[in-house]
Amino acid sequence: MNRNRQVLRGLPQHSSFPSFLMLVLLIIVNAILQPTFFSYQVFKMNFMTFTPLILVSLAQATVILVGAVDLSIGAGISLVTVAMASLMGDSSLSILLVSLLGVGVALFLSLFNGFFIGFIGPPPLIMTFATSTVWFGIALLIMPTPGGYIPEAYYSLYGKSLGGFLPMPVLVLLIAIVFCLLLGRLRAFRHLYAVGGSEAAARASGIRVTATKVFAFLVSGVFTALAALCVVGQTATGDARSGQGFTLNSVAAAVIGGMAFSGGRGSYVGAIMGGIILGLLINIIYFANITSFYQEFMKGVIIIIALLIGAVPRLRRSISRR
Amino acid sequence: MQTQSQLRSLPESLRALAANKLTIAVGSVVVLFLFGEIISAGFLSFGHVMSVLRLSVFLGVVALGQSLVVLAGGEGIDLSVGSVLSFGVVVASSILKGKDANIPAALAACLGAGFAIGMVNGVGVSYIGIPPLIMTLAMASVVEGLSLIYTGGYPSGTAPNLLEVLGNGRVAGVPNVLLFWLLVITAVSLILFRKRWGAVLFGVGANGVTAELSGINVKRFRMFVYGICGAISAFAGFLVLGYTGTPYLNLGAPYLMSSIAAVAVGGISLAGGAGSYVGAVIGCILLTTLSSILVALQTTEAVRQIVYGGLLFVIVVAYTRRRRE
């Protein structure tokens, strides 16, 4: 009994607690705005857009954990969609091979960033900003205008449900969650927190800092690859601009989920909630029935507000320290 | 520093000169112009050199704002300069409506809007503690939305005669805007290296804590630097409108990446506190020459993106290696 009360009292201090409150609030708001919110159809539709958001949030959270950031996630996704749409054919072998190639490209791009950031050590922000421009250029080079070919077998699969009740996007998400759980058991995963918390201390206690950073980018690449596969399923085309919004969204979602930019703090649970929260927020913009001109503007405003909310715990801490 | 370098022996100072980032940048500009002459005759003619320099002016103005933000430190950077420039263009043209008499009002509105947007960046970065790159990236999409809302998708108005004359006119073959730029370079260099404000800027950029301890309100200072950067970016939009005559949406997009690359090429430390505007100016000329060569080679947008991104990548990596040594 006493112990239970202690756990309850500790709950508000948890790094994901503000995100959890926000999630509950947004679900209520969405349910009020859309009476069919809890129906299976809406659930399925929502997760078609939420899943890529959650995946990029996880990708960004992983690199933020080691004190880095990746601004090339969006351009990387674009490049993968373009590569897949320009190569994919109708046969199931082609679909499988090209999907694997897409995953390979995403992993390579992420490792490229991770390698330079780990071994040479330029500021991750500027470094990934530069590579994002290069990825975008390569994507444009392959496909100057949106197009390419994605067979129906691929994109209709993304809209299907396994066994009639488990939508594909949710299945992808479950795979990602299992991957997260497996990762959590690795010692290398705990090293991410150590390196993000204090590089010097991590190095002093014998952790290989460079290898840990490269590992973080590798894991991030896995999530980005899954996100890219979903985006291809969702849009059914290759587009050098299809990933554009994901960079900012990934950062916003990770921050809403309680990841600290200084590194070493936050959790995957938070990052997943952050992705869902952002998705629900964007939903509200659509419900509000505002013209498309305002949508871009509102999205930016919402992200800034989200960043503000993400900063609240830190502000409170700095005030109480005075 | 000044006296130290004077005391160096000649071979030593020559070696220092060769290792200096600015020397490398100036050397690259010369090499690029020579290369341009090889691939397309007339690249080195007076007229063409002047037109390349004139195009550099717009980038040069944007890079001024970017330089100040980067110099002020705290991982300072502004990713909203392109969107603010675009916004400046549509605000100015809608007020100008092709009439000379509207120039003062348009200029004031332009500067005011840019300053206000910049101040929002500044508050977010300084007082709320959002990393500058993220704050200004989010702001970029907000301002892009603002331009759409303001114009309804179709920018209205045109530049008046006077603005076009100023923007496109020449004195003895030298474009007016280039003369204006020389004035700006001189004034900025004076402020940075001879005035208190410049000293504070370098102090805040080099070490925010020591600046705070010596009585400077670092947060407020950095906030105003973002405001100034916003105003300058919007002013660049005003100049660009004078050059194009008619407004388009997203005229500012190409300037974002280039302004950061120019600052980095020009030897301004991305960590803040070290560098000069003259360096950024050389960076701007280098980048504009490069893009002019890419145009002469008839490359596509894609290749240009790869070249710019690759260039920034190389600079960032090379700079890091030097720091480690």
Structure description:
The complex is a heterodimer of chains A (322) and B (325). In chain A, 76% of the residues lie in helices and 1% in strands. With 322 residues, chain A is an all-alpha fold. Chain A has a two-stranded antiparallel sheet. By secondary structure, chain B is mainly alpha-helical. Chain B has a single domain, classed as ABC transporter involved in vitamin B12 uptake, BtuC. Chain B has helices spanning 2-7, 10-19, 21-39, 46-71, 81-96, 103-128, 132-151, 161-168, 176-194, 196-206, 208-213, 218-244, 253-265, 277-296, 301-324; strands at residues 170-171, 174-175. Chain B has a two-stranded antiparallel sheet. In chain B, helix 8 packs across helix 12 (218-244) and helix 13 packs parallel to helix 15. Residues 1-5 of chain B have low confidence and may be disordered. The chains are: A mainly alpha (322), B mainly alpha (325). Chains A and B meet through helix 6, helix 12 and helix 14 of A and helix 7, helix 13 and helix 15 of B.
